[in-house]
Structure to design on (191 residues):
């Protein structure tokens, strides 16, 4: 059996239904002591027809999902699928933190797939690789032309700052491994 709760509505189609017809603020659900956080839909500080989380203690909208499905953190008018913004004058820029278990070889990263139905996996990727010494390497990869091709690492920056192109363990500041030798390419070593 399901328990149904309804407030200011006659709907029995959902387990919880909130509808505020008394004000223009929309429906609100309060969380925490003294209702310090509000989960709501409506127009309070976030434009019309949005879902938002509002911090009443600091009088700020913390997150918005608008009618286009765009998510805004730090902005009430997100123009992209994920829009992060810091509108204060402090030095705290918006960062995205990706974490893992802290074991050598663990990776975290960002996958780019301009063709969502691509069968070969990611078209491009940037990822951090745990080096096992409380630091990481940064790798960049792309897939060759074709929807079913597999991504390959193209460049790596080691925790030492050494950069390798087609070289995952560059011993110098800049190392390129290439099987191509012509006037349009650098050929420092042969892979």
């Amino acid at each position: 059996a399901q328990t149904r709760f309804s407030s200011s509505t006659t709907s029995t189609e959902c387990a919880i239904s909130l509808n505020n017809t008394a004000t223009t603020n929309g429906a609100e659900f309060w969380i925490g002591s003294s209702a310090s956080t509000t989960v709501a839909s409506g127009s309070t500080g976030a434009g019309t027809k949005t879902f938002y989380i509002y911090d009443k203690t600091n009088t700020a909208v913390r997150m918005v999902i608008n009618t286009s499905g765009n998510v805004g953190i730090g902005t009430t008018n997100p123009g992209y699928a994920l829009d992060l913004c810091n509108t204060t004058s402090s030095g705290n820029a918006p960062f995205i933190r990706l974490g893992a278990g802290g074991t050598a070889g663990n990776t975290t990263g960002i996958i780019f797939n301009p063709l969502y139905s691509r069968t070969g996996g990611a078209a491009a990727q940037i990822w951090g690789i745990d080096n096992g010494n409380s630091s990481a390497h940064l790798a960049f990869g792309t897939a060759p032309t074709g929807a079913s091709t597999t991504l390959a690492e193209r460049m790596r920056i080691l925790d030492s700052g050494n950069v390798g192109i087609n070289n995952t363990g560059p011993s110098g500041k800049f190392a390129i491994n290439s099987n191509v030798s012509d006037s349009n390419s650098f050929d420092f070593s042969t892979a």
